[in-house]
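Incident log, support desk, overnight shift.

02:14 A customer reports that sequence design results differ from what the structure should imply. Their input is reproduced verbatim below. On-call engineer (initials T.W.) acknowledged and began investigating.
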């Protein structure tokens, strides 16, 4: 199994851009882009926490999911 960040879907639902999220969280653009495209090899708790706080996400499964290996 692997973990997938559902940030692209969340941003689309909120009609929000990556740039807006960068401003809200203070994260680097590269970090947000890698998370949106699921290219980040490791997740920092701090990053996920900042994103959840900025987007008012209360349930971790709203932004992360486990998927079967392909």
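02:41 Re-run completed on a clean worker. Output:
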């Amino acid at each position: 199994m692997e973990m997938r960040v559902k940030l692209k879907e969340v941003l689309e639902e909120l009609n929000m851009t990556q740039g807006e999220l960068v401003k809200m969280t203070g994260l680097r653009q590269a970090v947000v882009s890698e998370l949106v495209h699921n290219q980040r090899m490791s997740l920092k708790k701090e990053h996920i926490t900042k994103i959840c706080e900025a987007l008012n996400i209360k349930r971790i499964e709203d932004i992360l999911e486990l998927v079967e290996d392909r």
